[in-house]
Specification:
Structural class: alpha+beta
Shape: globular
Distance between the termini: 44 Å
Radius of gyration: 16 Å
Number of strands: 2
Oligomer: single chain
Low-confidence stretches: none
Strand content: 5-15%
Largest sheet: 2 strands, parallel
Number of helices: 3
């Protein structure tokens, strides 16, 4: 993958497979060992409100709040890249009802 413009410094991406390069799909390259305890840990590290992005069902929304998040962002992370993912709008009503 090449682009024109200024060169950005190499940033460490510890949760991604070292073979991943920009432009490659992310499926199978993320760390699937992260848990709701990691959200609780992140919340404990700051006084800022923590939001969890990528929530697409009421169970995950409730777990995010139970883990200390102040809110959720109903999103499929740009689902055009993930075939089979549901549109965020299809999940919104259920999540809104669960969170009140």
């Amino acid at each position: 993958f090449e682009r024109e413009g200024p060169t950005l410094p190499a940033l460490p991406l510890p949760n991604l497979d070292p073979a991943w390069r920009p432009g490659m799909p992310l499926i199978g390259t993320t760390d699937d060992t992260l848990t709701w305890a990691d959200v609780a840990w992140a919340v404990s590290c700051t006084r800022l409100p923590v939001l969890v992005k990528g929530v697409l069902n009421k169970e995950d929304a409730l777990l995010a709040i139970k883990s200390g998040a102040k809110g959720v962002v109903v999103s499929n992370h740009g689902g055009r890249q993930l075939d089979g993912g549901i549109p965020a709008m299809h999940a919104l009503r259920e999540i809104r009802a669960a969170l009140g």
